[in-house]
Specification:
alpha+beta; 2 domains; two-stranded parallel sheet; 6 helices; Helix-turn-helix domain-containing protein; HTH_animal
């Protein structure tokens, strides 16, 4: 019985849950070759892995879902090493003690002084510039943590109008 992206299967001992996808679902996601930050690509796979870990109630169901994620990622040009690294990292993290992890996170967040900066995304130079900025800020204020927000620049919109010119007879009012 599918319900909100979860497939619930009933059996004698209770219920099993796994990720539900419609029969019409296609294997498309962010393409590896697209000109977007690698962090976006990583996030697209991470979201699928996190969803599988949260929803699947048995290891064999989780394994099957990971296989589907691998197939989808491979179809969109992702390397198997990239996907395996994310799966391993997320599995290791999910099986750690949640209490200890939460306590450490709460203590570290109390002392962090977050600063945000928005940069244009221009592939590798953007990362190099952000890394250099972070090191300069860290030298001057060890408690500050710089978070970079990348923004794509679409130069063609500046030169072309998105609307057609209308005659006065075509205008309303």
């Amino acid at each position: 019985m599918p319900f909100l992206g979860v497939l619930v299967k009933r059996h004698n001992n209770g219920f099993d849950t796994t990720v539900y996808m419609k029969k019409t679902t296609i294997k498309l996601m962010l393409k590896w070759d697209s000109l977007i930050p690698t962090s976006y690509k990583k996030s697209s796979v991470t979201a699928l892995v996190n969803r599988a870990i949260r929803i699947c109630s048995k290891f064999d169901l989780l394994h099957d879902e990971f296989q589907q994620i691998r197939i989808m990622a491979n179809f969109n040009g992702y390397s198997s090493n990239f996907v395996e690294e994310i799966i391993n990292k997320k599995l290791n993290k999910s099986y750690k003690s949640k209490e200890i992890e939460n306590q450490i996170q709460q203590k570290s967040d109390e002392y962090k002084n977050y600063k945000y900066i928005q940069l244009s995304y221009i592939d590798v130079p953007s990362y190099a510039y952000a890394k250099r900025l972070k090191s300069i800020i860290k030298q001057n204020d060890p408690t500050a943590h710089l978070r970079v927000i990348y923004q794509t620049t679409n130069q063609t919109q500046r030169y072309f109008s998105t609307k057609d010119n209308l005659n006065t007879s075509q205008k309303s009012g």
